[in-house]
Amino acid sequence: MNPNVLEIKNLRVSFFTDEGETRAVNDVCFEIPRGKFLALVGESGCGKSVTSYSILRLIQHPGKITGGQILLHNEDGSTVDIASLSEKDDKLYEIRGDKISMIFQEPMTALSPVHTVGNQLCEVLYLHRKISKQEAEKQVISMLGRVGIPAPERRFRQYPFELSGGMRQRVVIAMAMLSRPQLLIADEPTTALDVTIQAQVLALMKSLQEETGNSVLLITHDLAVVAQVADLVAVMYLGRIVEQGNVVDIIKDPLHPYTFGLLRSLPGMSKNKDRLPSIPGSVPSLLDIPPGCPFHPRCDFAQKGLCDCGEPPPETDMGNGRMICCYRAAGIRQLLEEKRRMEDA
Ligand SMILES: Nc1ncnc2c1ncn2[C@@H]1O[C@H](COP(=O)(O)OP(=O)(O)OP(=O)(O)O)[C@@H](O)[C@H]1O
Ligand SMILES: [Mg+2]
Fold first, then answer.
1. Which of 7, 94, 250, 344 is 20 to 30 A (C-alpha) from 31?
2. 106 C-alpha to ligand 2 centroid (Å)
3. For atom 28 of ligand 1, which residue has the closest CA?
């Protein structure tokens, strides 16, 4: 069996609007190993959702996958390139909700207001398996219990509006887990919830993942969340992955100047208590991506003639599974160390 459940290779997605072609996802490559939790992080608008929607082929007009592969490696040894399937291919229906499930940001979009929680969840089982009504009810009630819903037999008969936001998101997680997917994609699953509930829901996703051995792709802009649950991290900027690696290494020792800036702007990450360092400037428009390294206009280490012209920087292997896309990769550790010392002084 392939050690990766999913491999994304040189994925490109564009939106063709009146203003021109918006390259939302540009040459993105990453892998999700079986049984691992990968977090995709980056500022608003960098292409996280578009990447995840592409995996289930949910990109709609005027958006289009313009290149690359999305390889799903099944447990039976077969491989499907999701990017190349036609919209009407039966394989897409098998993949959606069965092999890959998705949890969206707002739980109410996934739940019908006019059906009971129990009926909606049983429906998932009827869709994917031949199963009796009694057996479906038993499995749904057990799953509701596993996602931490008290008195699951009573909740089974209730409507979504009778539940709190945190409980509804647990129902959505139960729904996504019922078909026992190989891969669970969660796009900002906790942003609509209170901070204390957020931590509980993430801990739940982590423990279900450890218990069932499925893989998770978590989309978030919150690096504090990433540190709690992820095994691996991919950092996106302007439609590209700029750094990838193990979560512990990246949080302790970020190597791309963008990741470094993101982490330093978190409270508690810098020794200077009076002023939090921030990344200068703002994210440029995707219609006007800077030449060379797309991050160069905001980067303290950008070198004229190297970083500001030509193609975006290629991947550099930094050892121990770490990759960055930076023209200054060779000397970056020393440059960041000096910056850290200056900021902390
Ligand atoms: N329907 C659409 N039509 C035109 N452009 C779109 C559309 N959806 C997304 N885009 C473009 O794709 C870019 C990436 O969007 P995406 O939703 O992936 O960002 P994101 O990283 O998920 O941000 P957020 O953290 O705010 O959710 C956007 O900046 C926008 O330019
Ligand atoms: Mg998004």
1. 94
2. 12
3. 45
